[in-house]
Prior knowledge:
alpha+beta, Aminopeptidase, eight-stranded mixed β-sheet, two-stranded antiparallel ribbon, 35% helix
Amino acid sequence: MVASITKIKIKMSGNEKKRSDASGLKKIVSKIRYGLTLQSIRNVLIRIGIDISPYYWFQEGINITKIPEIQGSASDYSFELLGPEDMKILETLGKGWSRPLERIPALLEGKEKCIATKCKDEIAAFMWINLIEFKYKSIVVPLKSNEAYLTDMFTVEGFRGKNLAPCLRYKSYEMLKEMGRDTFYSISISFNTPAVRFKEKLEAKKVDLILLIQLFRKFHTIIKLKTF
Length: 228
C-alpha cells in the first residue's frame, strides 16, 4: 500500500512538472512574440539589484487625428473616476502591481486620480493620473498646475482586444482639460514593445530618451541619450 501511494505521488509530481514546464515555455514564447525579451532580461537583473532602464518621455494628447473607438457595443461602456472605496476591487483586478490600496491617501488628498472604463458597472480597464509629480524609481519631477502624469494603464483580461485602453486614455485627456490640465506626460521603457506601440497608436510625441542606471539601491545616475 505504501509503495502504491509512493508511485502515485511520483506520477502526479511528474505531471505537475510537465504542466509547469509547458506553462513556462508558453510564457517565454509569449514574451518573444510580443517583443518583451529584453524587458524580461531587465526584470531578472532587477531581482539581483541591477536596474538598467532606458525609457522614452512622451507627451500625449497633442497630435490626435483619429478618435479611438470601442470595438463592440459602445453603449455598454461608461467612463468614470474611481474613489477610495473601489481600491479593494482594483487590488484583485490588477493583482496589486499598481498599489491601489497604498494610493488611497493620495486619492483623498486629490494628488492622484484613477479613471476607469466600466462595462455594465463592472470595471474593465483603469489608469492612474498624478497631478503633483512625475515619479519613477529615484526620479521625482514636480508638475506645473496645467500638467498631469499618466501611468499604470491596465485592461482586465476578459475585456482585452476591444480597444478599451486607447479609448480610456482619450477620455482622460477630456476629463483633465475640464480640470484645467492641458499637458500630459507619460513614460515607456524603450524595449517594452507593446507599451511603445500603444503610445504610437495614441499619436504621442517622443520628447526625450533617458537612461536610468540603478545599482543595489545605493548608486544611481540619469543620462539623457537623445532629444527628439
